[in-house]
Amino acid sequence: MWVVAMLALAMLLPATSVWADKKDSPDDDKETFREALTKGKFGVSLRYRFEHVDDDNFAKDGNASTLRTTAWYRTAGYRGLRAFVQFEDVTDLGLDDDHNSGLNGVTNRPAVIDPANTKVHQLNLSYTGLRDTKFVLGRSEVVLDDARFVGNVLWRQNFQSYNTAMFTQESIARTKITYAHISRVNNVRTSRFDANNNLLNLNFDLDRAGTLVVYHYNLDFDGNALPSTATTGASWNGAAKSGEFKFPFRIEYASQSDNADNPNDVDADYLRGLFGFARGPWTVTLLYEKLSGSPQDGQFTTPLATLFKFNGWADKFLATPTNGLVDMALTAKYKKGPFLVLLSFHDFEADTGGASYGDETDFRFVYTAPNGQAFWVQAALFSGDNGFTDTNKYWAMTSFKF
Predict the structure, then answer these.
(1) Which of 50, 88, 138, 177 could form an S-S bond across to 169 if both were Cys, CB 3.0 to 4.6 Å?
(2) How far apart are CA 381 and CA 268, in angstroms?
(3) Would the pLDDT of 11 be above 70?
(4) Taking the model in full, what pTM does it have?
């Protein structure tokens, strides 16, 4: 309610509010409310994708051909206020019976969770009339840090959004404070989960020493449709430099416990260490990531994350196994001009007991044309152990914005 009251108050304040001088006011603020409505910005994006899945757990392969279309409009500013709306449509182009979309009732083929759907993906009001401060109220995409804990899942055709009241403050030098209250999660399966989630993220710019982030994420889902947990952690990342070389790094630790009405006991932790070197168009990194787990202490979970981005593109570890997960990965990336090539090797083991889950090779090639259209070819080849089935996935896609 306090956010609503603040936005209402802003409508009554003069344009020369004592809380924000001219240089702090948005560049596109208009003199009248009518101008703000009629002189906003409009955009459309298209993304077509063909996905093929060969999973040894199924006698038949999965094939999906989908088109994601979005259209959005953002008003210009008026006394620091802006409105934003984005519509999203996912259309199946003829292969609806050849995969399990999550909604089409197909169960004898592998899943490709891109169900056909048309919806209002984002609808929010923002206010920037206070110095170095921004309020956002409504349905929005929320991405914190690298989306390991909170993300918009932009790989799937239906992106994830949240009903949220969010506040960011940057008046302290080199410091950004973000708080978000999430009352509903709108996920990629088009499911909705009511919640009382409170997220706090403190970002400190350490200049040449990198970035330090401290966070506390308190998740409380109605009916425990998703795991209710409290997670506290910190990360330090950056890149040391020596001549033409850079040495990217990230060190992160978090602890997690059960929260609210979670019927399961959770006493788990998370550890990530990434180190590498880069020169010119080349970057090579070595990753160690652990999500702890055991039958006695539960599993470390990240239900709001952009999960596809982590632990291999074959999506074998969207849920943390009972005995946890250790992911060791070597990645080489080449990016020059319009071309990007990436090759990654993963080895997966249990945190408790050390059993092998398998290994995976991921490949990505992207070409971005002069007109901005991107073309992707991608593959994930997973070889499983101890109950994890061999799975190969292939993608061909293109995207364009105007």
Answers:
(1) 177
(2) 29
(3) no
(4) 0.91
